Automatic annotation (TrEMBL):
Keywords: Signal. Residues 1-22 form the signal peptide. This is Repeat domain-containing protein. It comes from Propionispora vibrioides. InterPro entries: Integrin_alpha_N. SUPFAM superfamilies: Integrin alpha N-terminal domain.
């Protein structure tokens, strides 16, 4: 459908003739549903990149075959800035320039904005074609990052790693009476009991426990979204995995209980954890295996 639509559009538009350049061809611009939302001129794209809406800036660019036709494409990451020299960009968007016919394809990254946005091209889905990985710092005190992975195949953009994946945690924490929290590894079912007696005064003041150690507040610990993630082919099969770091916190975000390192691999329809490693920071109390 993508190629047929492209052929029809080119046939209707033909060549744009001007005294300055008589060989500039109008090219279609697609949205994430594969619908044509406008055109651009391939001559200007080749020289300076795609024409951007007012207020948008080019953040970074990479080249690689992301459409699977064996020809290198150009991937642009753009964002909206209040000022041209601002280090923060909102409403991030991927634009792919097809290396075969110079058509452009647009994929907004929904509700993603931040600092130091980066692009990486590599095969995460296992079909031997590069996917587009975007990492963006949130800028908050928690050190969180947004991570998005998008595939571009047959004229269709599909996000295979997004907001929900970025917030999935494979370690859960449940507070218990007696100044304890149980940490459970969802991958293997193993649990640890972490002693929290050194935090009694703080937890009583915050209303999490009574002075006798009885739990009165919310019994769930708080896993944070992933911080920076590393893309690497860990198992040597030619497909990239993601290694991400998270922290699970207690009564408030700075109340760190444990750090989690998770290795994720795409199964073709979802991300699966292949390993989960838990580290208890110094000063977090004594951890002991919980009884079955």
């Amino acid at each position: 459908m993508y190629k047929k639509t492209l052929a029809v559009v080119i046939g209707l538009l033909g060549l744009v003739v001007s005294s300055a350049d008589a060989s500039v061809l109008s090219q279609p611009v697609y949205n994430e549903q594969g619908e044509i939302i406008g055109t651009t001129r391939s001559g200007s794209v080749a020289a300076t990149g795609p024409e951007l809406p007012e207020g948008y800036s080019m953040l970074t660019v990479k080249q690689g075959d992301v459409t699977g036709d064996g020809i290198a494409d150009t991937v642009y990451l753009v964002g909206r800035k209040e000022k041209a020299d601002s280090i923060y960009a909102a409403d991030l968007c991927l634009i792919v320039k097809n290396g075969q016919d110079n058509s452009l394809y647009r994929k907004p990254l929904e509700q993603v904005g931040g600092y130091d946005a980066r692009l990486f091209l590599g095969d995460f889905s296992g079909d031997h074609v590069d996917d587009v990985y975007v990492e963006t710092a949130s800028g908050g005190s928690g050190g969180w990052y947004y991570h998005n992975i998008v595939t571009f195949r047959n004229g269709e953009a599909k996000e295979i790693f997004g907001k929900q994946d970025n917030e999935t945690a494979y370690l859960t924490g449940t507070f218990q009476d007696g100044w304890k929290v149980e940490l459970k590894n969802r991958l293997n079912g193993r649990t640890l009991l972490l002693d929290l007696h050194d935090r009694q005064a703080d937890y009583v003041r915050l209303g999490l426990y009574k002075e006798n150690g009885t739990l009165v507040g919310d019994n769930r610990a708080m896993p944070a979204p992933y911080g920076r993630m590393e893309a690497a082919d860990i198992d040597g099969d030619g497909v990239y995995e993601l290694t991400g770091l998270q922290r699970i916190s207690g009564a408030y975000r700075a109340d760190g209980l444990a750090d989690i390192e998770t290795v994720l691999k795409y199964s073709g329809s979802a991300w699966q954890a292949t390993s989960v490693r838990v580290t208890i920071p110094m000063g977090s109390g004594q951890a002991t295996p919980a009884r079955p």
